[in-house]
Each structure stands twice: as C-alpha cells, then as structure tokens.
C-alpha cells in the first residue's frame, strides 16, 4: 500500500533528506523529471511559476522540456525566487527559454498544455482576490492542465479550496500523497492523480492508500458508510471542525462508537477503523497520460 502523509510530515521528511545528504536542488530536479515523464507533451506549453519551491519545480521542468526539444514559455508571477528555484530559473534564462510576466489578465487560450506551479502543498487559508482571478483564468483556458504536487488553491492538509483551485486534468504529487488530495473539495478539482518517488526519506508512516480490491473488508456488516455531507449532518457536533480536521473528527467517532467509518467524498473515500486511517481513490485508477 502507498503511504499518505500530512503536510507537516512531508516538510520534516524533506528537510531530513536534505540534511542527510541529498540537496534540495537535486530533489527539485528529480521532481521535475517525474513530472516530465508523467505527461505526453505536445504543442505550446506554458509553465506558470510562483515564488516558492513549487515555482522552482516549474523552472526545473522548463529546463528539461527545453533540453528535450520543446519550447516552453515561463509565465512568472513574481521576481521572488527560492534559492533552488533561482538556480533553475538562471539555467532557463541562460539557455534562452522564453519568459513573460503573468497576472489574472494574461491570455492563456493559445496554449495546448498549462503547468500549474504556483502554490505548493504548504498553502492554506484563503486566496487573495488577484489569485482567485488568475486561477479562474487558468480554469477557463481550453488547455490540458497539469498541477505539480497539488492543485494551487487546495490545502494539502484538508483539501479545502477557499474559494477556488486550479482544476487539473492531471495532478502529479511529489514524494508522497498528502491527505488533502482526497478530502473535501479535492475530488472536484483533481481530474486524475499520480505520485512520483523522488527519494524522500519518510520519517514516520501515518496513513495508507488502498487499492479498490482492498476496500471490501472495510465495507462489511459492521461499518458505517455515508457521504461526507451525511457524516456532517449526523455525527459532526461542529460542522466547521469536521471540514477543517476530518481525520480527527472521524477518528474520534470511530473510537467512541467502536465502528469502522467509510466517508465518501465522491471520487475518494476516507476509511477509519479505530486503529488506522486509510484512503481509497478512483482518481488514481483513472490516471492516463494526456
């Protein structure tokens, strides 16, 4: 079974991997290579880069695309760069990769593929107005859309979009699946999902991803099967808390009632059996290259 982890565990595992001999620059290169190998590239390609390491993944990807005969266009949201992102941006600049500044008014209708490298899994909270407009502009574009690590606007912790997120055809998770990829609003925005292993040393195992044929033992006589809305109405004392912390709320109910809960989010399920937390998702089963 694949691992599913919290954003905090991912951040700490990433730092541990760097501190024990694998540079952040190398991890960024591996992430970009994983994305490159996950897509059948074609036509005109825009890579939209934010200011953090998610943007750095985009710069590293653009360099790989350029080196393989494509002509990506870097759409930059900011002059700010992370340390490792700056390295790959300079590589792109030195090789002559085309770049433009991007905002909510940028014309995106002429691109065949748009790569979303704006906000990573560490994002939470509410998007500012200009970012909402930018993401809505991306979603209107007819291009095939690839989100790197997570769809910009989604919380990697709980899958909430406030108020919107990039609607991808494919999301390429980096390192390990994060909990927010299966909860709340995530199934509305992720078309299909895959993970690429980049050699992150996982500090602790937390949750597990079930294949479809492994789900049946959890849907037997003793389980409570219901939608997220049904759980919210019938079990959640505080509906807002259930949305913010579904694992905590459902785990408590499972322990108190000594029952297995299977909470259906549409394309994904949260399964809690008093001891373990599992996820199962059709988003992964339907993943196909574009």
List the helices and strands and how they pair.
Layout: E1 2-5, H1 7-19, H2 24-36, E2 45-49, H3 53-67, E3 73-76, H4 83-95, E4 98-101, E5 113-117, H5 129-140, E6 144-148, E7 170-174, E8 177-178, H6 186-189, E9 193-196, E10 207-210, E11 223-227, H7 228-234, H8 239-244, H9 246-257, E12 260-264, E13 268-272, E14 277-281, H10 282-285
Describe the model.
The chain is an alpha/beta fold and 290 residues long. 34% of the residues lie in helices and 21% in strands. It has helices at 7-19, 24-36, 53-67, 83-95, 129-140, 186-189, 228-234, 239-244, 246-257, 282-285, and strands at 2-5, 45-49, 73-76, 98-101, 113-117, 144-148, 170-174, 177-178, 193-196, 207-210, 223-227, 260-264, 268-272, 277-281. The protein has a seven-stranded mixed sheet. Strands 4-3-2-5-6-7-9 form a seven-stranded parallel sheet. Helix 5 (129-140) links the parallel strand 5 (113-117) and strand 6 (144-148). The model is unreliable at 286-290 (pLDDT under 50).
């Amino acid at each position: 079974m694949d691992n599913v982890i919290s954003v905090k565990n991912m951040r700490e595992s990433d730092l541990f991997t760097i501190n024990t001999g694998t540079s952040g620059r190398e991890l960024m290169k591996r992430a970009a290579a994983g994305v490159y190998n996950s897509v059948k590239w074609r036509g005109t390609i825009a890579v939209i880069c934010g200011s953090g390491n998610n943007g750095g993944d985009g710069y590293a990807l653009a360099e790989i695309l350029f080196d393989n005969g494509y002509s990506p266009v870097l759409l930059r949201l900011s002059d700010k760069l992370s340390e490792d992102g700056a390295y790959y941006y300079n590589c792109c600049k030195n090789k002559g990769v085309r770049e433009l500044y991007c905002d909510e008014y940028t014309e995106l209708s002429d691109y065949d593929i748009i790569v979303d490298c704006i906000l990573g899994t560490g994002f939470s909270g509410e998007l500012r107005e200009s970012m909402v407009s930018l993401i809505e502009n991306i979603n209107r574009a007819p291009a095939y859309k690839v989100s790197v690590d997570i769809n910009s606007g989604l919380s990697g912790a709980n899958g909430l979009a406030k108020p919107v997120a990039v609607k991808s055809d494919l999301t390429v998770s980096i390192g390990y699946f994060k909990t927010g990829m299966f909860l709340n609003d995530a199934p509305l925005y992720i078309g299909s999902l895959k993970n690429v292993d980049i050699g992150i040393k996982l500090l602790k195992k937390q949750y597990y991803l079930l294949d479809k044929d492994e789900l049946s033992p959890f849907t037997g006589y003793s389980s409570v099967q219901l939608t997220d809305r049904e759980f919210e109405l019938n079990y959640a004392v505080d509906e807002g808390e259930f949305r913010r912390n579904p694992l905590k709320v459902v785990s408590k109910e499972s322990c108190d009632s000594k029952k297995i809960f299977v909470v259906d989010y549409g394309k994904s399920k949260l399964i809690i059996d008093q001891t373990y937390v599992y996820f199962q998702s059709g988003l992964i089963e339907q993943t196909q290259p574009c």
